[in-house]
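S.,

As promised, the adenosine-5'-diphosphate run. Input:
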Amino acid sequence: VAAEITVAPLPPALGRGATVAIIDRSAAEEAEQLRRDFVANVSHELKTPLTAMTGFIQTLRGPARDDPAARDRFLDIMDSEAARMNRLIADLLCLSRVQAGERSRPAQHVDLAMLLREVLATMGPAAHAAGVHIESDGLDGTIRVPGDADQLVQVFQNLVDNALKYGGSGGWLGVRLARIDREPLLRGPGWAVEIADRGDGIDGLHLPRLTERFYRVDAHRSRAQGGTGLGLAIVKHIVNRHRGRLKIDSQRGAGTTVTVILPETLKRL
Ligand code: ADP
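Predicted complex:
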């Protein structure tokens, strides 16, 4: 703990004695360190594609100048590096918007069942391409919860996308919506959305850190899949804003289940 302690004598008018001020500097220092780490991470993530692009530009100006096949290949790579930078910037803007509004409660209600049906319809082609069969349960009818539709779409798209990217080898994706009567840390009933895959799973030691910005179990694999390392951080902040809960259960070799629990009402909070 970094503390600053100052001792000063009391003004004579107040009699004999002294004031002691103890200021805890550790929280402020920790926040500052996190901010520095974040800036360093962002710079690194942006620099990597930029360095690759600069290299290819030089090659195109020099050795590959008169080689049309090489030129096309390098332009394709530059295209995908530019797309990576775009994704990163879009995720950074999304994260910063979500964090800025995290203290405000969602003012609207959404139909959670319909929202999930729509997300699955949008992700259907990607699942099909990855050879993943989607099984859903409890998505019929209408389930009203307080929520921001755009943000909740983002949450479930990120989770389904992760299940396909990292858990797709299991060939199965389960999405279940169920009512929860009681949940620690949640006052009152809520609705749980479970997104489960039968992929390789995640070692327990990583689980507590998965929602940190830029934390990846396998950085190479994440980048190869087009990941920015910000998906679960965005999910966590949106769920916080909805006064909900996020749980990640996983077993190496057996698969991963991510559960988002949203309160049915925000009135009592
Ligand atoms: P990324 O952009 O790298 O996908 P995320 O924040 O969405 O970033 O996820 C962080 C890391 O958590 C991923 O890099 C991956 O290692 C791991 N992960 C997320 N979802 C799953 C899953 N369903 N199965 C296995 N690993 C996962």
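The chain has a mean pLDDT of 94. The first strand starts at residue 3 and ends at 9.

- D.
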